[in-house]
């Protein structure tokens, strides 16, 4: 049975052209250029009962010739809490989410989910447990309705519309002559970056998984929409273990812990108010972004 990584349920025939699970997962995560080296364990560990995540001394590079992208990285995300990962472009933030999604194998250190090595779970199980809002959303060549429903085939029309409302995309959909039945092309040409992103967030709400990875979830949104979406995300994060990757230092008081990543290492960590008070790297980044003269 094929299943997409954003979807919890088997896919309808229309999506079966996608090929293997891994392929569709990678397409959804827009990592089409790299070959997955991940192997499923011979016998998968039973599903976790708790959803706490720990990186313990993880050093990682994409290939042997490359210097490590992550260096001796350690942090824990207790179940139901939110860690925000910030830092300059290329620091390794998205690499953390790719490792968590088991797109790449780690060889040094441990990544633990419910105190079990991540690589003792199958990739399919991991994908069922995680909702992802990635930087670029894969859309399928079908209706907007089906593009939302792919996240959860048990969702009824009411739930789908509610998710679209919560992500501020319902009115736009209704303004189209065919509404939810509007067909969107493979590349989603009809939709702007911000609209695609809101579809992705609506999918995450519909999927209702215990772990949430948000990789620049508001990157393509204007600041008013960003505020509203952040409000929705805050609600969605309640009770879920969340990894929020962002370069936008907005509303980060919602994070129980912020990691400031630089060159694959944690340069600073703490709650927002503490990082602001200590006037270090986070504070500098915040001031630069908010254009305050220091
Ligand atoms: P941004 O904020 O720009 O998204 P980031 O902090 O998320 O950056 P990553 O995407 O994790 O950074 O990338 C970290 C480093 O790993 C970069 O130097 C990047 O070029 C490199 N990298 C990413 N993917 C691959 C890959 N598939 N093969 C080799 N190197 C890669």
UniProtKB/TrEMBL annotation:
GO terms, molecular function: ABC-type oligopeptide transporter activity; ATP binding; ATP hydrolysis activity
One cellular component (GO) term of this entry: plasma membrane
Gene Ontology BP, a term: glutathione transmembrane transport
Ranges where the ABC transporter domain occurs: 53-288
Coiled coil: none
Entry's localization field: Cell membrane
Keyword vocabulary terms for this entry: ATP-binding, Cell membrane, Membrane, Nucleotide-binding, Transmembrane, Transmembrane helix, Transport
Top-rank lineage group of the source organism: Bacteria
Membrane topology category: Multi-pass membrane protein
Main location: membrane
Protein name: Thiol reductant ABC exporter subunit CydC
Phylogenetic lineage: Bacteria, Bacillati, Chloroflexota, Ktedonobacteria, Ktedonobacterales
């Amino acid at each position: 049975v094929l299943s997409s990584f954003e979807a919890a349920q088997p896919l309808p025939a229309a999506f079966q052209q996608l090929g293997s699970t891994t392929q569709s997962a990678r397409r959804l995560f827009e990592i089409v250029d790299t070959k997955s080296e991940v192997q499923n364990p011979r016998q998968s560990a039973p599903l976790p009962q708790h959803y706490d995540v720990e990186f313990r001394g993880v050093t990682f590079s994409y290939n042997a010739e490359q210097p490590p992208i992550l260096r001796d990285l350690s942090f824990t995300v207790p179940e139901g809490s939110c860690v925000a990962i910030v830092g300059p472009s290329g620091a390794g933030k998205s690499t953390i989410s790719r490792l968590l999604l088991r797109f790449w194998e780690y060889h040094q250190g441990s990544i633990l989910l419910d105190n079990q090595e991540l690589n003792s779970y199958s990739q399919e199980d991991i994908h069922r447990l995680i909702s992802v809002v990635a930087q670029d959303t894969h859309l399928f060549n079908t209706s907007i309705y089906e593009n939302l429903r792919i996240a959860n085939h048990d969702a009824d029309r009411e739930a789908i519309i509610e998710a679209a409302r919560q992500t501020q995309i319902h009115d736009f959909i209704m303004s189209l002559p065919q509404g939810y039945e509007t067909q969107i092309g493979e590349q989603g040409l009809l939709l702007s970056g911000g609209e695609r992103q809101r579809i992705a967030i609506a999918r995450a709400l519909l999927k209702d998984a215990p772990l949430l990875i948000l990789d620049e979830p508001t990157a393509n949104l204007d600041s008013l929409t960003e505020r509203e979406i952040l409000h929705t995300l805050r609600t969605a994060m309640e009770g879920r273990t969340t990894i929020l990757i962002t370069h936008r230092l907005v509303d980060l008081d919602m994070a129980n812990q912020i990691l400031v990543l630089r060159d694959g290492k944690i340069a600073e960590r703490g709650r927002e108010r503490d990082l602001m008070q200590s006037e270090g790297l986070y504070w500098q980044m915040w001031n630069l972004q908010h254009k305050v003269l220091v």
